[in-house]
Amino acid sequence: MAIYYNTSSGYWEYQDSTVDPVNWTVTATVQHFSICAVFEDPAPPVSDPADGATGVVLNKVIKVTFSGTITAGNNFNGITLMDNHNNPVTTSSSVSGNVLVVTPSVSLNEGITYKLNMPAGATI
Predict the structure, then answer these.
(1) Model confidence over 78-112: pLDDT tens digits?
(2) Could you give the number of structural domains in the chain?
(3) Domain hosting residue 29, numbered range
(4) Residues 89 and 113 placed together within one structural domain of the fold
(5) Which of 14, 53, 82, 116 could form a disulfide with 49 if both were Cys (CB 3.0 to 4.6 A apart)?
(6) What burial class does residue 31 get, using C-beta atoms within 10 Å of its C-beta: 0-12 exposed, 13-18 middle, 19+ buried?
(7) Average pLDDT, the chain
(8) Cβ proximity of 88 and 108 under 8 Å
(9) Of 114, 108, 50, nearest to 82 (Cα)?
(10) Do residues 34 and 49 share a domain?
(11) 38 neighbors 86 (Cβ within 8 angstroms)
């Protein structure tokens, strides 16, 4: 998978790419040249609730499971949960093995879309 650093948003973003494990290459088509990093991860992170999920209970603890062990990085406190009006939701975050756990401090609102943001260096 290829990831690039978006200097405007301050976040790492996934880039469509193809991994060739035989030749140890990752190929991605980009519209511009930027600071890039390439990572190989046997599986992309899996979130619970899943991206785009509906009907999620309003007191849901968010879990993002990675394929390998993670630890809190220098920007761990930069992990944010935002509603669709770009308002932050107060949360607490922790790491347990390969799982990032984000717990909202209040119940979420029905009919609102939320986005979890992880800045570069939040986990390593």
Answers:
(1) 999 999 999 999 999 999 999 999 999 999 999 99
(2) 2
(3) 1-40
(4) yes
(5) 53
(6) exposed
(7) 83
(8) no
(9) 114
(10) no
(11) no
